[in-house]
């Protein structure tokens, strides 16, 4: 298992996007997998792959709805992936 200390937080909620920021410790990995689900229980699907230097992501493929969008991040390693980060949800207003 990869060392993971990942903290995902909503930065802003806009009418057509959700912005996310995170902090992370050092990894022996290559990529962040940004995953979105329709609820905190999932299922989650990858919506983006970002380099380990990334610390934010704007999801512009969201729509106004009464239910939140939920996100988690997985660090993709060369041989193994991390466990998912804690789930964070946000509403598009």
Structural class by helix and strand composition:
mainly beta
The CATH homologous superfamily name equals Immunoglobulins
The unreliable regions are 1-6
Oligomer: single chain
- H/E topology pattern: EEEEEEE
Radius of gyration: 13 Å
Per the CATH scheme, the topology name is: Immunoglobulin-like
Q: Give the C-level CATH assignment.
A: Mainly Beta
Range of strand content: over 45%
For the record, the CATH architecture stands as Sandwich
Helix content: under 10%
Count of individual domains: 1
Structure description:
There is one protein chain. Strands 4-3-6-7 form a four-stranded antiparallel beta sheet, with no helix packed on it. Strands 1-2-5 form a three-stranded antiparallel beta sheet, with no helix packed on it. It is built from no helices and seven strands. It has one domain (6-90): Sandwich (Immunoglobulin-like). With 93 residues, the protein is mainly β. Mean pLDDT is 78; it is low at 1-6. It is 0% helix and 52% strand.
């Amino acid at each position: 298992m990869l060392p993971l200390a990942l903290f995902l937080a909503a930065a802003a909620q806009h009418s057509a996007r959700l912005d996310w920021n995170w902090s992370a410790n050092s990894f022996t990995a290559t990529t962040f997998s940004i995953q979105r689900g329709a609820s905190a229980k999932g299922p989650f699907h990858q919506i983006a792959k970002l380099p380990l230097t990334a610390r934010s992501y704007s999801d512009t493929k969201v729509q106004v709805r009464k239910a939140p969008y939920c996100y988690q991040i997985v660090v993709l390693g060369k041989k193994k992936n991390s466990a998912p980060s804690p789930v964070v949800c946000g509403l598009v207003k």
